[in-house]
Specification:
By secondary structure, this protein is α/β, with parallel strands linked by helices. The chain has helices spanning 2-25, 38-41, 58-72, 89-96, 103-124, 141-146, 179-193, 208-226, 276-287, 290-301, 339-343; strands spanning 33-35, 48-53, 76-83, 131-136, 197-201, 234-238, 269-273, 307-312, 317-319, 328-332, 349-356, 360-367, 376-384, 392-397, 406-411, 414-420, 429-438, 441-453. Strand 11 (349-356) and strand 12 (360-367) form a beta hairpin. Helix 3 crosses helix 9 (276-287), helix 4 (89-96) crosses helix 5 and helix 5 (103-124) packs antiparallel against helix 9. The radius of gyration is 23 Å and the shape is globular. It starts with a helix and ends with a strand. 43% of the residues are buried.
Length: 454
């Protein structure tokens, strides 16, 4: 009996330890989320909901609950996939049971993922004719935004080997992979659909296709507004990839999906409660993406919660002209928010500050540690509107050669960009972001923000 008692006590202790670890791993419960009740959405049969998804499965992960509520209200729902997910080699290896992928197997994966997307969206109630595949390159959207903007310098996918959509059902067949072409497609869809609600990825996204989708849709949206677009849609962003969030993996249908603690107080987050049947349907929609479930089931099903999480599409930061030279904080970045910069403070971005006067714009990128000579950094600035053609700057630091009117320097923990205001052509809006690198590996990224100069 004594031995049995010790065994029982030991077993209970193990159970308590396991439960303690489990609850320690559960998402931190903050007070930064406000309810987005179905009634406050006021969705009706006159609403048009437009969902932009980087890959097939993102629509189910991030917006399946919202889609179900829209369908229940007889709203029109259209889902647009920017890529067909044809760059995920691990999924292709598992799907086709091969030891090496080639262009044919990656193209076949793209077709499989289209079928999975149709199955998932059909389960959610979206008609097949309202599912659009743009066919741009998986794992290549950031390249289109940053490096292959012009249609004359198209990007070639290293996975499918093509520089245009190889799918017969693509939105714009045989269009070269370029940022210009993708932006044109997105603007065409926005004009055609005239949505009242838009859902697209957050600017906090860690996956390059996701943050690039945010950049393209945000730019298209602001460009249309600048040129007098009559629509005034509500815009919400959903988050999928942010380091080790959400945790723990696997479905936890009784728990709310909370924002990552590091950014919970940075923006306005909204929580959409899901009924039990909506949670079950969401899980089943995710499971329709079998090629993805086969390689990352735990992560995908971690989004099956009692709520869905949305970020209110952030407005532009207003930077007013002043002669004082005083810097204004434009955006903050969480400390140690990537595995690399947790251990390397010299690559960890802390904030972006700026000041502007009649002649110059100064942007200061502050790091957690002093700027080292070997640091690699990229600062990106894209103008919208104004009296001169669009300016797209991607400055690598250290810089070998800079355009006239632009200087870059460093002091202590700061990298300072000075730019003659005349180069901006009185552009009413700037899109600004930054990245640091450890060798060839990206260490940290400051989310893209919109800056309005006054």
């Amino acid at each position: 009996m004594r031995r049995l008692g010790k065994t029982t006590m030991f077993a209970l202790l193990v159970v308590l330890v396991v439960l303690s670890v489990y609850y320690w791993l559960l998402p931190w419960q903050g007070n930064f989320v406000f309810p987005l009740e179905q009634d406050s959405l006021e969705l009706t049969d006159k609403d048009k909901v437009l969902v932009f998804a980087p890959h097939p499965d993102d629509e189910s992960i991030g917006t399946a609950g919202f889609i179900q509520k829209a369908i229940a209200a007889d709203s029109r729902v259209t889902v647009v996939f920017l890529t067909c997910g044809d760059g995920f080699r691990q999924a292709a290896l598992r799907q086709f049971r091969v030891v090496r992928t080639n262009a044919n197997s990656m193209l076949a994966l793209g077709k499989v993922r289209q079928q999975e997307a149709w199955s998932a969206t059909s389960l959610l109630g979206v008609p097949a004719e309202n599912v659009v595949f743009l066919g741009y390159p998986d794992r290549g959207l950031a390249r289109l935004w940053q490096q292959h903007w012009s249609i004359t310098s198209s990007y070639q996918s290293p996975y499918t080997g093509t520089n245009f959509s190889p799918y017969s059902n693509g939105f714009t067949p045989v269009t070269a992979y370029s940022g210009e072409a993708l932006l044109k497609d997105i603007k065409t869809i926005l004009r055609t659909e005239k949505p009242t609600v838009i859902l697209f990825p957050s600017n906090y996204e860690g996956h390059s296709d996701h943050w690039a989708t945010n950049a393209f849709v945000a730019y298209a949206l602001e460009d249309l507004r600048l040129h007098g677009w009559a629509c005034q849609p509500k815009a919400y962003n959903y988050l999928v990839h942010y380091h080790d969030w959400p945790r723990p993996w696997g479905a936890h249908v009784m728990r709310a999906l909370e924002p990552p603690a590091a950014i919970a107080d940075q923006d306005e987050w909204l929580s959409l409660p899901l009924s039990w049947s909506e949670r079950v349907t969401k899980q089943n929609a995710i499971l329709k993406h079998r090629s993805q479930i086969a390689v990352m089931r735990g992560f995908l099903t971690a989004f099956v919660r009692s709520t869905e999480l949305f970020q209110v599409y952030p407005s532009a930061v207003v930077l007013e002209s002043t002669n004082s030279g005083e810097q204004m904080v434009l955006a903050s970045d969480a400390a140690g928010d990537s595995l690399i910069d947790r251990f390397d403070r010299h690559t960890d971005i802390v904030r972006l500050s700026g000041c502007v006067d009649a002649k110059n714009l100064q942007l200061t990128l502050s790091l957690r540690g002093p700027v080292k000579p070997e640091l690699k950094c990229k600062m990106e600035l894209v103008t919208l509107g104004g009296t001169v053609p669009e300016l797209r700057l991607q400055l690598s630091i250290p810089a070998k050669e800079l355009p006239t009117g632009i200087t870059v320097s460093s002091s202590g923990n700061n990298i300072i960009l000075n730019l003659e205001r005349g180069l901006l052509g009185e552009a009413p809006l700037l899109f600004v972001s930054a990245e640091t690198y450890q060798g060839q590996t990206r260490a940290d990224r400051l989310r893209q923000i919109k800056v309005q100069l006054k």
